[in-house]
Amino acid sequence: MSKAAFKGGVHPAGRKEATSGTPIEEMPVPARLVVPMSQHLGAPCEPTVEVGDRVVRGQVIGATDAMVSAPIHSPVSGEVTAIGPTLTTGGTRVTAVSVTPDETQDLASFERVVAEGGVPAIVRAAGVVGMGGATFPSAVKLRPPNGMEITTLILNGCECEPFLTCDDRLMVEMPERIIAGAKIMAETVGAQRIVAGVEDNKPDAIAALREAGRSAGVEVVGLVTRYPQGAEKQLIWAIMGVEVPHGQLPAATGALVHNVATAAAVADAVERGKPLTERVVTVTGRVARPGNYRVLLGTLVVDLIDHAGGTVGEVGRIIAGGPMTGQALASLDVPVTKGTSGIVVLGPDEAAPDIHDDQPCIRCGRCPEACPMYLEPYAIANYAYRREWKAAEEFHPIDCIECGVCSYVCPTKRPLLQLIRLAKATAMQKGAKL
Amino acid sequence: MVDLTLILKAVVALSVIGVVTSAVLSTAARRFHVEVDPRVERVLDALPGSNCGACGNPSCFAVAEAIVVGDLPANACVAGGQAVADEVSTIMGAVACEVAVVVSARQCGGGDRAARAYEYSGVQSCAASARLAGGPLVCEAGCFGFGDCMRACPFDAIVMDERGLPRIDLVKCTGCGICAKECPRGGAGLLRLVPEDAPVVVRCNAHDKPKDRKAACSACCIACKRCEKDCPEDAIHVIDRLAVVDYEKCTGCGICVEVCPQNCIDLHGRARGSDAADTDGVGKNVPGFTTA
């Protein structure tokens, strides 16, 4: 059963066949780990260890008191060898704690999370964040603002980005963990209904979730395969038939959306006291052994690609995340973090052509047609290009979800999203709120 | 046949309307009269009128009004400099006030000599590229060269040259500082306001280890302290691994320019009567260079 999806969107080639049938494989402990102190949206953590300290797996190595944040735990037992800045996959520089792992590691044991104050406190202490890529601290979402009633918990298993299959494999291999996490979260916020939204190009995942969720009364909805079906607001529209009002939280519609991997991490945290120290990463494209690897957070991308057999043939760009929203990496010495869903190695012919802003907008109208947020990307971008920030703001760049559909459809290959991001950043500097 | 009464009626009717309306208007004009200070107009004429916004006000008109009511001093116009301040003082009948005239100086000589961290393709804008891994340069302080400052300058005082660096025309530059605000690295000192008669400028603003810096750019200050040792006025010091000029003390003798092994100190300023274009990026290789 496929449901009507949202307005707009595109159909990029899926390219998931290389890894969708590959079971999740544990990556061995690498020789070095660089664990950034900011792997989430919100306030960065301060290191709580010093160079030379011994750490054990699961020990807190970064923490902060800020509301919107998540602590960082050591993924291995070992020694802290350095604390200093590192480049992240997102292109920012943050403080990181380098840990050299001991030679023998027992990945089954870990320091258990202790927290008082119910499920949200445990989820916070375990450092769980949105693992679909946005990395918003999950505990914050589990404490909805006063007066907002959550009726429906939506599990996001869309994975609409081309190439990525990590959520797909997780749904196929451990659906009971996902359902367990969903039940915990639904109970916490008082949601009566649990719905899982999965794009209909993943029939195995839909079947597995249905099977696992039958006794718990979880509805599993097959959704039209169209990018960006997995964007929070588009998913709410597809499942609930309501729009998130401008300037309001998704909670205003009574929906709480969590990624399937986040749900599994919540189940691990609450039931087993396990902090978030690893995640599944899809490594695909031009590598010798494409696959879905369970990777310790802080593993360098270069080590991960080596483990996947190294690159094959000529390489154009290496992208962290999916090709639509992910960023091309400037260096491979960047660590995998809580939001790294994939490493996609593209050849020179596959990577997006060099985009320069010298091509004019021909007013064909494809970008507003494709924009799932009812925006006019060409208008925002044109004003941003001319640095007319005030005029650009009239077209609501802050409502942009940065899905990249506009740049994808533009026939003159204008860097629309990059320009809109500039306009959005400028508007937010002036105090505009998402 | 023309019916004359028709014309008569029209004339009478219009006259009556005219008289009534003019009575209303003249009463209204007297009752709601707003006193406009004629000096606002004159001050506005004296201001540059480009609405550059460098003073922090929305327009030159707003500044003129604020000056006349006394909310802003006569030297409120940043871009106008001494000439405008004098004229405004005269109009306002105020005591002439001194204006510290500044100009913008680029503290980077990298350009095509700076190593790239990655290939950048995308919006040709410094602000846009700065959001990707901190910008396309290895150097953490250098100029990206996409010309955001050039596009932001309200006075057309900046052009990007063949090295990919902004060249600041000191005759046109008013020291409004907009370029430094627009530059993603301006706050850190890539573009800095210096006194109008600053005789020299150091074309580097990096503070990292000189070894790292040299690997990132062949044009940088290497913190060798030659300038500091040789300066007869004690006006240049290596502070936090970077040569910094104390313009209070600098006399413009040019010795630092001569001894700099990196050729990274340039003669500068209106003081020498030279256009900055002649000295920009060449250090001591200026035709006819002598130390005073």
Number of strands of chain A: 18
Helix content of chain B: 25-40%
Count of DSSP H/I helices of chain A: 13
* CATH classification class of the largest domain in chain A: Alpha Beta
Mean pLDDT of chain B equals: 87
State mean pLDDT of chain A (0 to 100 scale).
93
| Uncertain stretches of 5 or more adjacent residues of chain B | none
CATH fold descriptor of the largest domain in chain A? Ubiquitin-like (UB roll)
The total number of structural domains of chain B is 2
Task: Tell me the β content of chain A.
Answer: 15-25%
β-strand amount of chain B: 5-15%
Distance between the termini of chain A: 34 Å
In CATH terms, what is the fold-level topology of the largest domain in chain B? Answer: Alpha-Beta Plaits
Q: Structural class of the secondary structure composition of chain A? A: alpha/beta
Going across the biggest sheet of chain B, name each strand in turn: 1-4
Count of discrete alpha- or pi-helical segments spanning 4 or more residues of chain B: 11
Task: Give the low-confidence spans of chain A.
Answer: none
Helix content class of chain A? 25-40%
What is the CATH architecture term of the largest domain in chain B?
Answer: 2-Layer Sandwich
**Oligomeric status:** heterodimer
Compile the SSE list and pairings.
The complex is a heterodimer of chains A (434) and B (292).
Chain A: E1 2-3, E2 25-26, E3 33-36, E4 46-47, E5 54-55, E6 60-63, E7 72-73, E8 78-87, E9 93-101, H1 118-125, H2 138-141, E10 152-156, H3 166-173, H4 175-189, E11 193-199, H5 203-213, E12 219-223, H6 232-240, E13 255-259, H7 260-272, E14 278-285, E15 291-296, H8 301-307, E16 317-320, E17 327-328, E18 342-346, H9 366-370, H10 377-385, H11 389-393, H12 405-409, H13 416-429
Parallel strand pairs in A: 1-12, 2-15, 10-11, 10-13, 11-12, 14-18
Antiparallel strand pairs in A: 3-9, 4-6, 5-8, 6-7, 8-9, 14-15, 16-17, 16-18
Helix pairs in contact in A: 3-5, 4-5, 4-7, 10-13
Chain B: H1 4-31, H2 38-46, H3 60-69, H4 81-92, E1 102-106, H5 126-130, H6 148-152, E2 158-160, E3 166-168, H7 178-182, E4 191-195, E5 200-202, H8 210-216, H9 226-230, E6 236-239, E7 242-245, H10 255-259, E8 265-267, H11 276-279
Antiparallel strand pairs in B: 1-4, 2-3, 5-8, 6-7
